[in-house]
Amino acid sequence: MKYFFLALLPFFAIHKTIDALNPWWRLLIFPLIFLVFKFKGEIRKDLNSLCQKRVFQRTILILFIALFSFRMGKSLYNIYRPLKAIEDIAVVHKKAVGLLFKEKENPYQHILFEQAPITITRKGKTDTYSGFIYTPLGIIYYAPFILLLGKKGMYAGNFFGYWGLFITLLLLFRFEKTKMLLAGSLFLAVDYVFTKAFNRGTNDFLPSLMMLLCLVGPKRMSGPFLGLSLGFKQYPGAILSFILLFKGRLKTLIIGGVVFLIVLLPFMIHDFHSLYRQIFEVFLFAPMGNTILWDVPKFLIWPISLTAVLGMSGLSWYYRKRDDWLGIFLVFLVFIIFTKSSFTTYFIAIFPISIVWLLEGKRYIKEEI
């Protein structure tokens, strides 16, 4: 039983550490994750034993119903309640939708931020990146919700992303009822993920859902789902593509690349230079976000970033024929904690992956990508 509670600890601690104002708090995730990895055999043995006990089955059913009722009710309520606070991401999406669908203009060419736009100084010259900085599928997807509800349209759009991740986990574990309820309960229990969907309105849920479907869906659909994930947002699809390259999944990458190019094509034709600047170049040269590198001396930034990339490469190579889910999780973890422009919202993408890994959901996947 003690190992079972050890396994739960990271799920409930994660939202208290990774979104702290001081990014060094994220390092606390490492010892928690290490303990889970070290005792994974005992943890899974405990889980399998507990899942056979009628008391646990009834308890997890009651917990599942309570969490589902609370989260579903709160998600619907937040869509209709008066707006209190929301991320600037929602503001940017609202303006981009207005430009594209009302004013018939290119959102990659306009100033969209309520605060100052992104400014980057290179070689003594200051450049301004003021347009939409995400790939265009998000504008199209959120458009009907935003046109109807304004900024709160991000909540309505995230409703399908958040609950889509939840349903995907349930379907994956559908052959084992107790583990299905446990997987669903773990997902619903972490307040950080829910808050980002329905209190802050971030745009990470649809790309994360597409990435999860790329991993657990039919093999023939892995490429299209990867392309759609990239079409919604550059990350997490870019990191998954990095991992798949080491696995030699060229067909998946090629199909995903074609789908991604189709999404970009109208904007490439209209103004390739603005599109390239806003969705690629800005991420290469942007200053540090809220990451550990924010606090280190400048001369250490690139060595640490280079070490992180080499670490991601080494992990991808080591796990290329091993436990795919553990390899994916660790590569993302290194990226989120040590690279210069990663944000804690990327934990949304790997959180379902960690549940699948812990509960051995891989055995239910019929086709590996």
Give a brief description.
Helix content is 68%, strand content 3%. The protein is an all-alpha fold and 369 residues long.
List keywords for this structure.
two-stranded antiparallel ribbon; 16 helices; 369 residues; mainly alpha
Q: Topology, pairings included?
A:
Blueprint: H1 2-17, H2 29-38, H3 40-51, H4 54-80, H5 88-102, E1 118-122, E2 125-129, H6 137-149, H7 153-172, H8 177-189, H9 191-198, H10 205-216, H11 222-232, H12 237-246, H13 250-285, H14 298-318, H15 324-338, H16 347-358
Antiparallel strand pairs: 1-2
Helix pairs in contact: 1-2, 1-3, 4-7, 4-8, 5-6, 6-7, 7-8, 7-9, 7-10, 10-11, 10-16, 11-12, 11-13, 12-14, 14-15, 15-16
Whole-number total of structural domains: 1
Strand neighbour order, sheet with most strands = 1-2
Annotation, overall tally of beta strands: 2
Which class of secondary structure composition applies to the elements?
Answer: mainly alpha
Gross morphology is globular
- Could you tell me how far the N terminus lies from the C terminus, measured between alpha carbons in angstroms? 35 Å
Proportion of residues in helical segments: 55-70%
Main sheet properties: 2 strands, antiparallel
Number of helices: 16
The amount of beta strand, in percent, is under 5%
Overall mean pLDDT score? 82
- Low-pLDDT parts are none
SSE topology string: HHHHHEEHHHHHHHHHHH
Radius of gyration: 21 Å
